[in-house]
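note to self: the first set is below, dont mix up w the second
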Amino acid sequence: MKKTASTRDLILVAVLIVALAYYFGIQRPITNQTDELNAEKATIESDITIAQTQVQLKKKMENELSAILEAADGEPDALPVYDNINNVILEMNSIFGKSKDYSISFNGETEENSVVRRDIRVSFTVDSYRTAIEKLTSIDQSTNRYLIRDVSITDQSDEQGSAFSVTISLTSFDYKEQ
């Protein structure tokens, strides 16, 4: 005897087919697209945050440049002309000459876009921390352009007296005309 499907069974199968068709044909593609759009939105929000940070940094730099121009009456100091090494050596000697001892080493030079960079390492010993800071301030306030990259100050005081050993890594900048 053959069993035929009842109306109830046919309705259940039809509902199941409609539910599966809805899930695979509509719900699943919409969910996948929503997930993709959310990921794209997160990327765009990240890009916006980066762009806003860059705008803030640019405004800060523009304000700093305006302050420099204002302080210099519109004529800021230029980089020294190339081969300023003799002036650098004379300046270093005037700054560190009265130290207990000092040594200066130059580690070559590199040129990029008409700007010559020269790496310098200075080691010196002085009697007080204040004197060490004064010498560092002299370098920072020099008319020659220096970028102080690393500073190490070590207290080497003993029974014979106070002594501070200082090591500086810095870069000097010159302008090389083409």
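second set (the one i keep forgetting abt)
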Amino acid sequence: MGVCGERMGRGIDPAERACTVAAAKRRARESRWNAPGRARVVHPVHGTVVVPHSSNLTAIQNAAEVWRCDWTEITDAQVWAAEPGDVPVKMPYIICALFPNQFSCASLCGKSTAGGHPLTAPSQGLIL
């Protein structure tokens, strides 16, 4: 069968666990950005953006990613149906710099880190 407690998450290598969690976050983000609907998110400070929409929460999460802020801080945004001709913004590209001190980024996301990523700080990713 396997290692004792394997199904409970015990006995799993920390690097493998981090890889699994990173892959789950990546899949959730991709499904959020591939939603079929479109919404216009209006915020008094950040402005207006048209994003993919499957629920108001996902629209706010996508807008927060475009605005480069934490979605939990957006409390006064309004989500409206987008006009038929509105084109949503593209999904921001995130350069991987996960766990720079503990695990290699190449093992987590497949990107080479020879000499480190030139555009990222040592402990954070950069959204372009």
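remember for set 2: The helical segments are 14-33, 56-67, 105-109.
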